[in-house]
Design a protein that fits this description.
By secondary structure, the protein is of the alpha/beta class. The chain has a single domain, classed as 2-Layer Sandwich (Nucleotidyltransferase, domain 5), CATH 3.30.420. 42% of the residues lie in helices and 17% in strands.
């Protein structure tokens, strides 16, 4: 069966991208949804204090000002295990994981002055030898557990695209679900012959998703298993012929980064990509204004940053449609 997790980073900020990511695994047929932390131990652990690959809710593994090592030691070994290498720069990472239609996954960067012609060498805060060692341990556990890691993907939604979509949607939660829906459609089509379970971090306070799922996937039918504040679960029917059906189950759950390893891994990739974008963003502005304090882009500090850079932005003719989200 296929087990996939979807999560985002950057839903609330005023500056920088929203990033939605998915992590996908194949488990032995007939098994119920597994606790992959248990299946992949001791190569993988929730804690960053062990010598294992740290996989957990990104909010537990990342703190501003303490670097990206925990995220890198979680994400890069999985990419190394899948491809035999890992991307050495942000742009090559985007080429590997970003799903943004035609063209290279990093083409959009050059539409923004703070990214144009710039890149970040990876890893930033850990060592290549550490990544290779962790990837080797992961390979051994994947083989021993008969779990197959199928890959990671992400959709970065930068500010201009974010603002343009809001002109037609006018609702930030619907915008986020549109991106999630893109991954759901890909999973629906790619794994049509296999039982599939997708776990998604709950979208705000929403508990009813059946209309959105029907609009997104156009299944033959939707069975609502439960719709509660902490969890909403749906089974989607693909075919009218019962003997040709494969189960496609979607769960929206609170705190699922702590319950499902694929969701935790997706949250880490989303956070990692967002932080790399913000690194380039802050680098660009700090090079042009001595003593400028960097920003993570969240509303209160973003307002401070915008106040501190009024004159600089005027001098550089910065287009606010590229810089500031509408919502």
């Amino acid at each position: 069966m296929i087990l996939a997790g979807i999560d985002e980073a950057g839903y609330g900020p005023m500056l920088g991208p929203l990033v939605v990511s998915v992590a996908v695994f194949r488990l032995p047929d007939g098994d119920p949804p597994a606790d992959l932390w248990e299946a992949l131990a001791p190569a993988v652990d929730r804690s960053a204090k062990s010598r294992a690959i740290p996989v957990n809710d990104s909010k537990k593994l990342f703190q501003q000002g303490k670097g990206l090592a925990n995220l890198e030691e979680g994400i890069l070994p999985f990419l190394f295990s899948r491809e035999g290498s890992y991307p050495g720069t942000l742009r090559s990472l985007l080429q590997a994981v970003a799903r943004r239609g035609a063209g290279n996954g990093e083409d959009y960067l050059d539409s923004y002055p703070w990214y144009r012609g710039r890149d970040v060498k990876l890893p930033r805060d850990t060592f290549q030898a550490v990544v290779r060692r962790l990837a080797g341990r992961l390979d051994e556990r994947l083989k021993a557990s008969s779990v197959e890691f199928l890959g990671l993907a992400a959709i970065p939604v930068e500010v201009r695209e974010f603002n343009e979509q809001l002109t037609t949607i006018d609702n930030k939660s619907r915008l986020s679900f549109r991106v999630i829906g893109d991954f759901l459609r890909r999973l629906w089509k790619q794994y049509g012959g296999e039982r599939t379970e997708v776990v998604v971090d709950r979208q705000g306070g929403r508990t009813h998703y059946a209309p959105l799922l029907f609009e997104t996937l156009r299944p033959r039918g939707i069975h609502i298993d439960e719709q509660r504040p902490e969890r909403s679960t749906y089974r989607l029917t693909r075919s009218a012929k019962r003997n040709q059906e494969t189960e496609f189950r979607i769960m929206f759950s609170t705190e699922c980064e702590e319950k499902f390893l694929p969701v935790a891994l997706a949250s880490m990739l989303s956070k990692y990509l967002r932080e790399l974008h913000m690194h380039l963003f802050n680098e660009y502005f700090s090079e042009r204004q001595q003593g400028l304090k960097p920003t993570a882009g969240y509303v209160t500090d973003a307002r401070r940053f915008l106040a501190d850079t009024v004159e600089l932005r005027r001098r550089l003719s910065i287009d606010e449609a590229l810089l500031i989200r509408r919502k």
